């Protein structure tokens, strides 16, 4: 009975919606049964990690599929700029509060397919100093 018309416990089960490209995206998202995270982490190529509260995220700007800017208003006004490619899904997930962390991958290499989402650089600009 290799072809049953209904689900079976025999044989491998493909994970729906998870391809080789999807498994290597440069972000980690919250699971479907997990509560939305309170903060998200920005991980840099040099090992630095900065966390921001979703409550401080005021605006997201998707200029094109390769440039996303997060406007954060906490103790300081900050713009976190992400440059890469295929970042539309990331913008949607951040808007829904589903991202746990995102990671800078560095310059493009041949081991990453052109269709895979990539964050080449992350830039943080502090626009104002702390309120006194």
Question: What is the count of DSSP helices, taking H or I runs of 4+ residues?
Answer: 2
What is the succession of H and E elements? HEEEEEEHEE
Helix share, percent:
under 10%
Low-confidence stretches: 13-22
What proportion strand?
Answer: 35-45%
Number of strands: 8
* Global Rg: 18 Å
Instruction: Identify the strand order in the major beta sheet.
Output: 1-7-2-3
- Could you report the average pLDDT, rounded to the nearest whole number? 84
Overall SS class: mainly beta
Give the CA-based shape.
Answer: globular
The largest pleated sheet is described as:
4 strands, mixed
Task: Report the span from N to C terminus.
Answer: 73 Å
Question: What does it look like?
Answer:
The chain has 132 residues and is mainly beta. It is 9% helix and 39% strand. It is built from 2 helices and 8 strands; from the N terminus they run H-E-E-E-E-E-E-H-E-E. The protein has helices at 20-23, 88-95; strands at 27-29, 39-43, 49-53, 57-64, 67-73, 77-85, 99-103, 118-126. The strands form 2 sheets. It has a 4-stranded mixed beta sheet with strand order 1-7-2-3, covered by helices on one side. Strands 4-5-6-8 form a 4-stranded antiparallel beta sheet, with helices on one face. Strand 4 and strand 5 form a beta hairpin.
The gist of it:
This protein is 9% helix and 39% strand. The chain is mainly beta and 132 residues long.
